[in-house]
Amino acid sequence: MRVYKKMTADEIQKLMFGPIQEAARKAYGDQFEYGELPPEEDDEEEPEPEPLPPPPPPPPTPPKEPERVTGPLEWCDLSELRLTMLVCEFKPVGVNRNFHLQAIMARMHNVFEHEPIQAKMFLAGDDSAVFYEKVKERVVSGKVHDQKKPFASFPPRYGCRPTLEMIEDKLNSWFGMSICEENESYPTGLCEVTDFRLPKAILEASGEEQEGNGKKGEIKLRKKTSLIHHQQKSKRNHSLLSQIHLSQVQLQHRLQNHLLQNRARLQRKALRKLNQLLLPRNLPQSQLQTTLLNLWQNPSQLPNNKIERFI
Predict the structure, then answer these.
(1) Residues near 130 by Cβ (< 8 Å), separated by ≥ 6?
(2) Total of domains in the chain
(3) For residues 59 and 61, what is the distance between their CA atoms, to the nearest angstrom?
(4) How are beta strands 153-154 and 208-212 bridged, if at all?
(5) Does residue 157 belong to any structural domain of this protein?
(6) Which of 14, 25, 90, 245 lies 20 to 30 A from 290 at CA?
(7) Are strands 111-112 and 153-154 parallel, antiparallel or unpaired?
(8) How confident is the model at residue 80 (pLDDT cuts 50, 70, 90)?
(9) Residue 235 covered by a domain
């Protein structure tokens, strides 16, 4: 037979927690046996607690100290924080060490508009607002800055304007820069000391090639026929008339153009060429000028075989 007994939450709490806790603190069978409820206590009205006294007034806040403005050659916490952020962006060791140090020094003196939004903490009130608006406009529009236009820069609110030597001394005090430099990897052949050599493309264009002598360390220059050298040599040794096959009319027009451009030189050259190829070798000097003028005015009188020889 099962007996169901309705109990309130307070009765369950007294039954489960009261006897167990009392039994844990007292010897067995001193007051009551297992299963019996402890005697109910008379509910007496507790006296109302006395009101607490009002809290004392807070102490007066001390006046805010003005921000300490350091000199241009004196480090402060804000300038050191700026240097730490720049070192994470520009690694001051390795092949690009000098370029990165220059970039760090430039950004220590100015905050540029293309920097991250975290650089806002290094600016004063008005400059901070303008910098925030520029960064917001750049992020929202997604436009790329025109490289021809300079970036807007803002002076930081810290007073330190470190030199390159100050930055190097500060990095040496923070890190072992010599150890970092030794552990840095360089491209193969970058640190080798060799004689200066022009690139191969420039050597081929100028027609000169450098060859090093491993025994004596001497450099020998050797002429090499290239396209530019060949063109220059062709212009010196061959005239334009000997390269192009011209008809009789074209020959006349070409000779006239050359005579107009450089009359004195080309006239002597043309007369010498005509005298050698077209005229008899033993022609008297008195008849030479008359014959040349006739041929000049009437080039159709020239025989075909001699025209081919002349060309």
Answers:
(1) 154
(2) 2
(3) 6
(4) unpaired
(5) yes
(6) 245
(7) antiparallel
(8) very high
(9) no
Measured between alpha carbons, how far is 162 from 247 in angstroms, rounded to an integer? 79
In contact, 169 and 75? CB cutoff 8 Å: no
Tell how strand 111-112 and strand 219-223 pair up: unpaired
Contacts of 209 (CB under 8 A, 6+ apart): 203, 221, 222, 224
Percentage of residues of the chain with pLDDT beyond 90 = 20
Q: In terms of Cα–Cα distance, which of 164, 173, 161 is closest to 98?
A: 164
Residue 277 neighbours by CB under 8 Å, 6+ apart: 306, 309, 310
Q: Phi/psi class of residue 90: alpha, beta or left (left: φ > 0; alpha: ψ in -120 to 50)?
A: beta
What span, in angstroms and rounded, lies between the C-alpha atoms of 154 and 127? 7
Decide: 273 and 254 in contact? Cβ < 8 Å: no
**Cβ of 307: how many Cβ atoms within 10 Å?**
17
Buried b / exposed e over 45-78, threshold 16 CB at 10 Å, is: eeeeeeeeeeeeeeeeeeeeeeeeebeeeebbeb
Q: Which of 167, 183, 199 finishes a domain?
A: 183
- Whole-angstrom distance, CA of residue 274 vs CA of residue 3: 148
Please report whether residue 116 resides in a domain. yes
In angstroms, the CA 255 to CA 296 distance is 9
207-231 burial, b for 16+ CB within 10 Å, e for fewer?
Answer: beeeeeeeeeeeeeeeeeebeebee
Residues 6+ apart with CB under 8 A from 92: 100, 101, 104, 171, 177
206-258 pLDDT tens trace:
765 445 444 444 444 445 455 555 556 556 555 544 544 445 566 667 667 76
For 101, residues 6+ apart whose C-beta sits below 8 A from its C-beta are 90, 92, 164, 167, 168
The dihedral over CA atoms of 293, 299, 301, 304, expressed in degrees to the nearest 10, equals 130
Strand 208-212, strand 111-112: pairing: unpaired
What is the domain range of residue 256?
A: 240-273
Q: If you average pLDDT over residues 273-282, what whole number do you get?
A: 58
